[in-house]
């Protein structure tokens, strides 16, 4: 009689993933084996690179790509409020996040020399530039392709045509009532962050984006502005 192999029983602990996350979050809270500090404002958040890489394509691109951040022990997260960054890290470690249905934007009234708050559900852009065309404030991209405009007359936000690709840390300016967006960073199909030499234009009248070619070189975290030439010379003959 042939030897009969004993039947194998497979056991799976359904609580193991959540328990593992809980243990990792506990290590983070006690700063045990943390190997990177994420800094924003006056706050420093200790983390484990391997947890961030496993839980976020953005951090995977940052730490596994050919960027200086992959070698740094202390990283400045520019353009992200400390409470927003803290919520993102909490989500990576716990799978839970408190989502509010509105975002408070600060508005300054020059004539009254005072600030007020504008609440909206539309704006979720981070590291995104803003530009003014006539009576609307346009907020462009920011880890997304989303573009929204705030109409100061109607006190409402409206959605605009999306950019061609997700972009953050880019520049924006206005010339002849058209919006021009330059450079920035984006996450490619391999979840790697790349610098961009993209140059696009948006026409609010047609709600269309147009490619304007490429910049002479790639750049991000820069400013863009139109130049007005002034001369005291008369018109040429």
TrEMBL record:
The lineage of its organism: Eukaryota, Metazoa, Chordata, Craniata, Vertebrata. It comes from the Eukaryota. The keyword Repeat applies. This is KLH38 protein. It comes from Atractosteus spatula. Residues 34-101 form the BTB domain. The keyword Repeat applies. Keywords: Kelch repeat, Repeat. PROSITE patterns: BTB.
């Amino acid at each position: 009689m042939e030897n009969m192999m004993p039947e194998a029983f497979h056991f799976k602990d359904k609580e193991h993933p959540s328990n593992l996350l809980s243990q990792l979050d506990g290590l983070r809270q006690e700063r045990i084996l943390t190997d990177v500090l994420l800094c924003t404002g006056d706050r420093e958040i200790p983390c484990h690179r391997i947890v961030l890489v496993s839980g976020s394509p953005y951090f995977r691109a940052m730490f596994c790509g050919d960027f200086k951040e992959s070698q740094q022990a202390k990283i400045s997260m520019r353009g992200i409020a400390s409470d927003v960054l803290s919520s993102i890290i909490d989500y990576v470690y716990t799978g839970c996040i408190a989502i509010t249905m509105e975002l408070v934007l600060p508005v300054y009234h020059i004539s009254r020399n005072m600030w007020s708050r504008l609440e909206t559900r539309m704006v979720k852009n981070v590291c995104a530039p803003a530009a003014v065309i006539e009576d609307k404030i346009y907020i462009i991209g920011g880890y997304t392709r989303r573009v929204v405009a705030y109409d100061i007359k109607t006190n409402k936000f409206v959605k605009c045509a999306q950019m061609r690709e997700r972009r953050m840390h880019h520049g924006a300016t206005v010339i002849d009532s058209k919006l021009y967006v330059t450079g920035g960073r984006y996450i490619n199909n391999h979840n790697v962050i790349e610098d961009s030499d993209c140059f696009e234009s948006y026409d609010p009248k047609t709600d269309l984006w147009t490619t304007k070619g490429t910049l002479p070189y790639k750049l991000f975290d820069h400013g863009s502005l139109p130049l007005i030439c002034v001369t005291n010379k008369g018109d040429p003959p």
